[in-house]
Task: inverse folding
């Protein structure tokens, strides 16, 4: 497994994995197509116009084929004002192959190198396999986020 920074040539692969984000339900009551379109837009922008404090990585298998990606952004803690890394998106082509762990390891290293003492991420409530994965890695529920559609 090799991890490298993503480039424009990875856009089709990355956007092709976006439908994975609605396999266990869409976040915040959005319709699945809205989640897919919005996420694809944000990821395209991150690739086309990289910003300081953002990171898009690609995991490649032993044949050099892309196997997953991760997109992390720098956030600011509400209580302390301290910067930390937030995993905005992570998707793998085939689960169970160690791709997600390799991508998370890389972002955790990047976060430590930037002096962050904390990382965060979001998981839809119905995605229990992802929740177990993150809990095995030492992540814990910080709070629940409620949404009401008006």
Result:
């Amino acid at each position: 497994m090799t991890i490298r920074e993503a480039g424009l040539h990875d856009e089709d692969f990355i956007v092709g994995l976006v439908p994975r984000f609605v396999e266990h339900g869409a976040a915040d009551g959005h319709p699945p197509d809205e989640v897919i379109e919005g996420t694809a837009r944000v990821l395209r922008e991150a690739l086309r116009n990289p910003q300081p404090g953002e990171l898009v990585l690609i995991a490649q298998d032993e044949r050099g084929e892309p196997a997953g990606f991760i997109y992390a952004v720098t956030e600011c803690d509400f209580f302390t004002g301290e910067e930390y890394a937030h995993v905005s998106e992570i998707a793998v082509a085939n689960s169970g192959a160690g791709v997600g762990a390799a991508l998370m390891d890389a972002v955790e290293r990047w976060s430590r190198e930037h002096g962050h003492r904390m990382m965060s991420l979001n998981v839809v409530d119905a995605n229990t396999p992802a929740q177990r994965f993150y809990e095995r890695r030492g992540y814990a529920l910080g709070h629940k986020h409620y949404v009401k559609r008006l």
User: Anything to note?
Assistant: The longest helix spans residues 32-48.
